[in-house]
Amino acid sequence: MEMRRKIFLILMVAWMTMIFLFSARSGDLSAEDSAHAGMMVGRIFVPGFEQWSEQEKLEFAEKIDHPVRKTAHASEYAVLALLAAGAVIGKKTTLRAGILVPLAVAAAYAATDEIHQLFVDGRSGQISDVLLDSAGALTGLLLLAGIRIWLRRRKTYRE
User: Fold this and answer.
1) What end-to-end distance do the CA atoms of the chain give, in Å?
2) Domain-by-domain residue ranges, the chain?
3) How many CA atoms lie within 13 A of 54 on its CB side?
4) In which residue ranges of the chain is pLDDT below 70?
């Protein structure tokens, strides 16, 4: 196995470990993480957010909690799928294999992650999250495929 693919494999396992550790956090700690993320979104994207009262900031964070969580789910699995693609894709890998294998890895890990959450205090396993995670993985892989196709066409055009 070439060095680049080994590095991607190591990064993929490290990313899976990070996902596992976040999933192992209790429901209360996970809610705190989401509140912090909501506050960060407010600071970055809402003009004058710092002048709001603490109550207004907390209400904002609660209001965007669901989309923040779901975006995080999709994003972390997009990254996982891209890392898996880096570990799978070689010089002779077909575009189809470069998408299907990493997608299967990400979807399978999403399923095991949701099963894991059934055993964590205050957490639950959701089939809808497996679907969302898989959709995030597919989105990341389709973006990668589009970039690879564009680069090949660009290279062909220049030659």
Assistant:
1) 30
2) 3-158
3) 0
4) 159
